[in-house]
Amino acid sequence: MVATEHFDAIIVGAGPAGSAAAYIMAKAGLNVVLIERGEFPGAKNIFGGVIYRKQLEDIIPEFWKEAPLERQVIEQRLWILSDQAGVTIGHRNEAFKEPNNCWTGLRVKFDQWFATKAEQAGSLNIYETVVIDVIREGEKVVGVRTDRDQGDLYANVVVVADGVNSLLGKALGVHREWSPNEVSLAVKEVIAMPKEKIMDRFNLEGNEGVTTEFVGNTMGMAGLGFLYTNQDTLSFGVGVMVSDLKKKRVKPYELLEGVKQHPMLRRLLQGGETKEYAGHLIPEGGFHSIPPLSGDGWMICGDAAQLVNFVHREGTNLAMTSGRFAAEAIIEAHETGDFSRVGLAGYDRRVKESFVHKDLKKYKGLHHFLSDSDPSLTFDKLPKALNEAAYQMLLVDGVPKSDKQKIAMRGVTQAAGGLMNMVKLGAQGWRAMNG
Amino acid sequence: MSSIAEKLYTIRYKVDETSHLIIKDQDVCLHCETKECQDFCPADVYHWMDKESMTSVAFENCIECGTCRIGCPTYNIEWVYPKGGHGITYKFG
Fold first, then answer.
1. CA-to-CA distance for A345 and A299, rounded, in angstroms?
2. Which family does this protein fall into (chain A) (predicted)?
3. Which residues of B touch A39 (CB under 8 A)?
4. Which of A203, B2, B50, B61 shows the smallest number of beta carbons within 10 Å?
């Protein structure tokens, strides 16, 4: 361990936020160290599986020529499920290919590639090392304490990118513990399936891929499921709010197995072999849970800062962008030599002017909307009523269409607790989605 | 339908000798009415043992998600990361 060396920056966590920050600073000639607690970058990391082009392209142009990606996503589906049925919407478009909008991916491969890019740019990467605390001089953060012997490291600035469980963020006093309604628990399986079978089942050519998100059928808990196509595996999972999980006393893996039995999913998954089970928290507190982003000698990025847009399943790209902004602000501070709160405020300004802040702000009411409204209504009764309405409308049984329409409407309104409640719910939902 | 044992079998672990999950006070568990850690943990780490009047912690199974730290109604679980390089290592992620 290089205990006495002083770095320009220490980055904690070799996920997308940390590697982005390390890569950009190293490329600019700064002396940086990237510390990761896993055996290798990505060893502890999972995500649903979508990597967007734009935000990584801003860091590494034409990265797709070398990055380990799975399939280019040309179709995105949203399924609203009851236990035996589904109303499906979606969009498939060749235009998603040129330029490519997003790819599916797997974190172990992707994170290793990204951290190696930082290393090649000059970052000193240290793995199998836990950062247990920050070192302060007065108010200012001046380094980190690791679980290695003589493992103290010093730097002008510490970038905290240690993920949703950010123990370092808490050591720093930046944020309190998340409450159970600010995080959801996602459990996931990577399911192996022959490439040809995936391509047939999802109607794909070459390297094309499909993502499917599904709402409903989560035992009345607020949550979302996903099924993404990789090269020769599928990423399948479901995430629900921890607060709901606590109330319902459901075992997460039993929920996952239950969802697998849905006829629309079962048919897509059958014959596959589970290669890996995984679980991870997703920060879903939204805009109001974002802590202060920087201070004297420190910054916080990515999941550790609750920068996740759960409405659009975007997190990795917000992480990478926040890491980039942190790096750019540190490069500026490096020129002036000011690493105080004021000197590092360029990070906050960049985040605020970007889509990261704007998108999270747009949905700032959604967290409260979901906490206040009954999840069994939004995630169970309404999806069921919608499916029943679709069934009634499509079933030809001699009942006149006008009667069917009335029955369908009545079913949906009843599920919502009456017409007034439905209108109210719609209005509240609209406001929550539109800042 | 695959069991949790089968699911956990797909994961590679490098298990540390000492637990990174500590029940702060078993007496608190004794008086806990819900004992919901037995349910919400995605890796079945926690089991209430009636005979011994204590919560057992199978930390070897832990997938380091952090749910127990946040979900325990009395915050009775001290949750830290396993020693560097130890604990779960995903193959796909």
1. 9
2. Belongs to the ETF-QO/FixC family.
3. 14, 85, 89
4. B50
A51 interaction partners in chain B (CB closer than 8 Å): none
Calculate helix-pair angle for A16-27, A316-336, nearest 10 degrees: 30
Q: Which of A44, A180, A249 sits opposite B39 (nearest CB)?
A: A249
Q: Which positions ≥6 away from B43 have C-beta within 8 Å? A: A279, B4, B8, B58, B61, B62, B63, B65
Domains and CATH numbers, chain A: 6-68+106-178+286-361 (3.50.50.60), 183-283 (3.30.70), 366-433 (no CATH)
Enumerate residues 6+ apart whose C-beta is below 8 A from A299: A157, A158, A159, A160, A293, A326, A329, A330, A344, A347
Question: Best residue in B44, B48, B67, B80 to probe A by mutation, most A CBs within 10 Å?
Answer: B67
Residue A3 clears pLDDT 60, i.e. is over it: no
What does the pLDDT look like over A168-202, one tens digit per residue?
A: 999 999 888 999 999 999 999 999 999 999 999 99
Q: What is the pLDDT of residue B1?
A: 60
From A360's Cα to the closest Cα of chain B, the distance in A is 23
Confirm whether pTM is higher than 0.90.
yes
pLDDT value, residue A423: 87
